[in-house]
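Handout, section B. The chain below has 564 residues.
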Amino acid sequence: MGRTEKGKFAVLSFLLAAFLCSILYFDEKSELKFSVEAGYYDTPFSLEIEGAEGCRIFYTLDGSEPTVDSIPYDGAIWLEDASLHENVYSARTDTSTGFYGDLIGMYASENPGYRAPDVPVDKCNIVRAAAFDGDGNCVDSVEGSYFVGFGKKTGYDGMWTVSLITEPENLFGYDKGIYVTGRIFDEYRKLLPKEDTPFRSCWWWWDANYRSRGRDSERPAHVEIFDAAGQLLLSEDCGIRIQGRGSRGKTPKSLNVYARVEYAGSGEFSEDIFGMGERPHKFVIFSGADDSAYKVKDYLVHSMEAGLDFSTMYFKPAVLFLDGEYWGTYYVTESYNADYISDHYGVPPDEVVMVKEDALEEGREEEIGLYREMRKFLSEHDMTLEENFKKAQDMIDMCSYIDYYAAQIFIGRYGDWPGKNEGAWRSRNIVQGDRYADGRWRWMLFDVNSGSLSMDRVEADTLAEVLAVDSVFASLFQNEDFRKQFAERLLYIAEQVYAEEKVDRFIDDYLEQMLEPVCCNNRRFHGMELRAEAVENAENIRFFLKRRSEYMIGVAGNLLGENG
């Protein structure tokens, strides 16, 4: 390169460097940020909003999105314990038809006794700020949750904290609010006196805004998760929806939280919050559903059965704040979808076929036929014939199926299982040498919060009950090899998975960690702690599992025979 060329190159390099520096300087100066990171603080402090030079800054403290009509920023914001502020969102009584006692008395039953809090609930400071240019365009925004003076409050020790921030109309608006009865219920209630109204006797099934499903029911939000030490784990824009079936009509509700490109530029969250080596695409803020008062059944079963050959979910105890107001005790859990299968089993998401309750959850529309064909073959063919049983083994992972059914029979599931609350998945195509991409169906555990672990079913013959109602299981049970493997796994579950010392350790840990948060949750939604009831419930489950092990060891022994 000649001297002239070198000179030109040097000039161009200098100009490029200057340009990049100016961009970096501009970005640093223009980025809107808070002077103090979101989190827990012992004493009040002043929060400043920095950056966005040359722009006007406006902020809100109620969760609403800032506009040019919001509070203009003209100096530091004083933040102190907001808990003594008047209840706003937690004071609402349109978050469930369970609040409508007059209608329940006329058309339904089982009044849940919901009560709005009559004292101020715990609150954090929600600060949302936005910068606007001279034309009134929003050029940047930032939000944060600040918990001040929580050191002596109860119900938080050892717990994660989740703060969901969203435009209040997204949750509580009459037309678009997904957490309230809203306009949809007002239209539906006109039908209640009619005899042909579906679910007329079950108030939690009455139609309402919160029963809306699908992408149209998703609302933009910002989620922040803090660990047990109050350190920020995740701060990200996301989408939220109500989760569940019947539990949608109750309170508190579970929420699905989604990572999407349109919210934060990625289809997965930025942090591996579950410590699994993968960043989730979705997670659930799980209320406990039908076990929302004690929140132990799903937590226990998923934890104890995690080593068996079917899918389970990771549970992390947490408290939730919605737009700054305490919203009870939950678990942050994984969620079953194609990404879950990919993360846990290595099957590409676009190769996953998943079915729940005979409905396709993942895959192509026509692939529900694969599941139905499998069930039809297994239920209608003689499984005592070797060729039929061999084909059954090619269609389903027999170890997964047997582990799943043995475990659910052990815990005494009934009422909403089998058939309901049952899910399975498979890979679309077969990849030689890949254990999980073999085209066989495998089972998934979910929703064990109602018909299970009941004191009055210690010696319930759940095996006979399942044989009477599940044609696939009854057919397979005719095969001697199947019965032997089933009995062996049932014995293993009774002696090892639910060994007495493991049960004791789990129940003791649950009472130590969860009793106070559960009592705070019940005080929030029912006006009473239910402390004695929570302890009694945990001890009843302890008793059930110990006596159930003794009973099921006998059942397994009978199946195996004297030489088993």
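Note. Residues 158 and 228 are 5 Å apart (CA to CA). Compare this with the example in section A.
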